[in-house]
Amino acid sequence: MDTVDSVSSAVAASLRQARQVAVAFRAAPEVDAGLALAALVSLLLNPVLEGTDLSFWSALLAAGTSLPLMLRRRYPVGVLTVVTAGVLGCLAAFKPDQAAVGVMMVAVYTVGEQGRRTRSLLIGAAMAPLAAIAVVIASRNGFQFTATVAYLALVLVALAAGDARRGRLALARAAAEEAEREREAAAQHQFDERRLRLAHELHDTVAHALVAINVRAAAAAHLQRNAPGENLTALEEIKRTSADALADLRSTLRTLRSASDEAPLRPAQSLADLPNLVEGLAGAGVAVELRIAAMPETLPAAIGHAGYRIIQEALTNVLRHSSARQAVVSVCLAGDTLTIEVTNDGQARARHPAIAGHGLRGMAERAAALGGRCEAGVTPDGGWRVWASLPTGT
Questions:
Q1: Which of 367, 310, 369 is nearest to 342 (CA)?
Q2: In 233-261, which positions are buried (b, 16+ CB within 10 angstroms) versus exposed (e)?
Q3: CB 3.0–4.6 Å: which of 113, 227, 246, 299 could bond 162 by disulfide?
């Protein structure tokens, strides 16, 4: 019973292999089919030109030698084995000397191109005795050393050429993969930069607005308790601040849309918008002195926007973490460097110690992205100072 099962398994495996070979023949590239046809024609034409008559069996042997070349890319070693046996048979039957060398060169070239260096070396070593056997079969005078060396040299040249092409293709694939990895890394880096920029925009817009609203709402509640009916101004400021924050938020989120030709709801803020920013803080109980010196008319938009956001975040921290009632904002352009300084005279609240949170890190990242730097720390008189330097590139 075991023997019957083994035979059945072997037969089934053979049938599967035969089907795979048939599929491979049908899927063979046109160039390989043409190569196999050219090999068949050369094997038949070579002896005919030398005056040798061919029989049906000779033509069948030539076909069995050349047609396997259609499968040379899928089964390179197997095709080389079949072609080698067929070439030796053709040499013994009707001596297609030159054509046989050409067919062998194609087979060993494919082994070198499709295989590995070790396999190519083993095939090259095996070619030496096969070349001697082929010369003995084809020659009428027995073994000839010169003919053997020439035959072997041609075969080895084809093998080396195939191995060299394999190496070039491997280098090309490695270069293409490296280029693809670099493109993916660049795309990821660009995405990360955009995400970080968007996070900064959202943080600056929302944080500043919410802090200002919180301060003014607290002031309105205080007025309502102590002087009912006199908190209309604070409520109007809350309304205006929240409307501005919503407009900024919509403009920031609009950048996520795919349509690149859509204009933002409002242009990105720049240093020219600082007076409005300072005016908005007056209602929150912080008097801000704005000092702008030597400001060019054509400051790069990225520099102007980053400067505005750094100042906005610094003033937001004054409202959030400090008891200051006065702040000074200094903006100066010296050469090709824009210098920003925001100082206040208040002490840090005990509940909110001055530590490096998202706001301070965001200011530093904004400056670093433009090739500058940003620092923050306590002043000698106990206040707080934010200093930034941005190269303008002008």
A1: 310
A2: ebeebbeebeebbeebbebbeeeeeeeee
A3: 113
- Please give the residue range of the domain that contains residue 106: 2-184
Does residue 241 lie within any of the structural domains? no
What values do phi and psi take at 256, rounded to 5?
-80, -15
Which of 147, 167, 184 is where one domain is finished? 184
Helix (H) or strand (E) holding 315: helix 301-321
Q: Residue 385: helix, strand or coil by DSSP? A: strand
Give the residue among 384, 257, 381 at the shortest CA–CA distance from 316. 384
CA distances from 270 to 140, 298, 385 (A): 96, 11, 21
Range among 28-42, 179-193, 217-231, 266-280 rated most confident: 28-42
pLDDT tens profile 188-215: 777 777 777 776 666 666 666 666 666 6
The angle at the Cα of 279, spanning 277 to 281, to the nearest 5 degrees, equals 75
- 374: which strand partners? 388
Q: And the tokens for 244?
A: 């501005």
> What are the backbone angles phi and psi of residue 324, rounded to the nearest 5°?
-65, 145
> Is a pLDDT exceeding 50 seen at residue 341?
yes
What is the tally of structural domains in the chain? Answer: 2
Q: What is the pLDDT of residues 324-336, one digit of tens each?
A: 778 889 898 887 8
pLDDT value, residue 60 = 92
Q: Which two tokens stand for residue 156?
A: 């080895």
Shared domain for 158 and 19, answered yes or no, is yes
Q: Give me the chain's average pLDDT, please.
A: 77
Tens-digit pLDDT profile for residues 3-52: 656 666 666 666 676 677 666 666 668 888 888 899 899 888 888 888 77
The pair of structure tokens assigned to 141 is: 């005078």
Residue 322 DSSP code: B
Q: Which two tokens stand for residue 203?
A: 């943080």
- Paired with 334 in beta bridges are 337
Domain boundary (148, 168, 184) is at 184
Over residues 205-231, mean pLDDT: 63
The pTM for the full model equals 0.50
